[in-house]
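worker-3 :: picked Zinc finger CGNR domain-containing protein
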Amino acid sequence: EALAVVNAYARTAADWRELAPGPEFRAVVRRAVEDPLRLALGAISAAAVELFAGEGAERLRACPAPGCILYFVRTHARREWCTVGCGNRVRVARHSRRAREGDEAG
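worker-3 :: tokens ->
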């Protein structure tokens, strides 16, 4: 279902450059669809296709933080979280857990 929606809107992103006639050639952009909403949805869908199936798709990761549903593109080998906030919450929870375990042991 979601794939069909993305593909349907990705088809509307088609645009191309042409040379306009005149004393001096100039490039103009032609679009298959002129509706601004459909153009925006088409551009977003085309970006989604590139994200999931393009050259960088192997860098796409799900955030491993508990309860986080976001994905991110791993731009650095040490990047683990979708945001700094997600990573910080995990580290704070780990620190609190270790502190509690230390209190219980001693």
